[in-house]
Amino acid sequence: FKANLNNGIDEVAVQGMGISIEQYNDVFATQNHVVEGSMFVPGELKAVIGVSLAELMDLKVNDYITLLVRTKEETFNTIDLEIAGLLYTPHPMINNGIVFVPLGIARQALNVENGISMMAVKIKKDKEINSTIDRINQIFQEKNMNINAYSWKESAKTVIAIRAAEDAETAVMLIIILSIGMIGIINNVILSALERTREIGMMKALGMREWEIVSVFMVEATGLGIFGGLAGCLLGFVGVWWITEIGYDLSYIGGDMSSYGVPIIDKLYGVWNFSSFVFIFFFGIVVALFSSIAPAYWAAHKEPVKAIYHR
């Protein structure tokens, strides 16, 4: 519900949220982000607000606030509350403009009796989401209730779209990086074969067949791919370990990014993706192997005399 928060001197528009604290804590992890004080308990006439909102209104734990609200009859009412705790979450809206109050107090002030505007249901398994939504909607229809249940994905389409764009961006960057690495590998293998044209001519003069000469270069290129892949994976392991365990401190670029609408605070952490390590390792081996065939075959196909004298 919409409200105006008054600290006795200043006033700011906020969004009030009446919650049944025991059920709310079972579904959401907001209580894990309390940095000062605590969440209120049933029966208390208290509120919980974000740190940014508290700093804006010069409030602290145990201070009193007044919420000016409009009832369903379009009349004004007030709620006087004591601040029980301060939150610092990854969600900028909670930090900046939401006031959590007991559900009963909100109902009484808004004069909505037992009404609620939203109910959140937590499901243990993702595969049960659709079936649970269908059962809930069926119950609503049987009771002739003009409300619907929907998954969080439907209410977070923007977030999902941003995530899809990020995945596409990551894929493009990975393709560019792999292309650069592939060109480097091919270049090294080709130069290695061309520089040893004279040696290839000697091998052929001593009776080695073309496929045997090509096999030598393929084995050599495969070995280079294996050692190069291991070295790259080792360096990547160190880098990913650092970003996942220590993280990148955002204080170097301004600290709290939530003020800019980016839900990241304190540090930026990465995640392990072992499938990428495996893919990159075998990708390097395959590229090195196949890129060695053409130049080795070209050199091995030359006449021994021409190969020895680079003709």
SSE inventory with pairings:
Blueprint: E1 2-6, E2 11-19, H1 21-27, E3 34-37, E4 46-50, H2 51-56, E5 64-70, E6 76-87, H3 92-97, E7 98-102, H4 103-110, H5 129-142, H6 152-155, H7 157-195, H8 197-205, H9 210-245, E8 248-249, E9 267-268, H10 274-291, H11 293-300, H12 304-308
Parallel strand pairs: 2-7, 4-6
Antiparallel strand pairs: 1-2, 1-5, 3-6, 4-7, 5-6, 8-9
What does this structure look like?
One of its GO terms (biological process) is lipoprotein localization to outer membrane. It is found in: Cell membrane. It holds the Pfam family FtsX. The chain has 311 residues and is of the alpha+beta class. The protein has three domains: 2-120, no CATH class; 124-155, no CATH class; 157-308, no CATH class. 51% of the residues lie in helices and 16% in strands. It has helices at 21-27, 51-56, 92-97, 103-110, 129-142, 152-155, 157-195, 197-205, 210-245, 274-291, 293-300, 304-308; strands at 2-6, 11-19, 34-37, 46-50, 64-70, 76-87, 98-102, 248-249, 267-268. Helix 7 (157-195) runs parallel beside helix 11 and helix 9 packs antiparallel against helix 10. The radius of gyration is 32 Å and the shape is elongated. The model has no long low-confidence stretch (mean pLDDT 82).
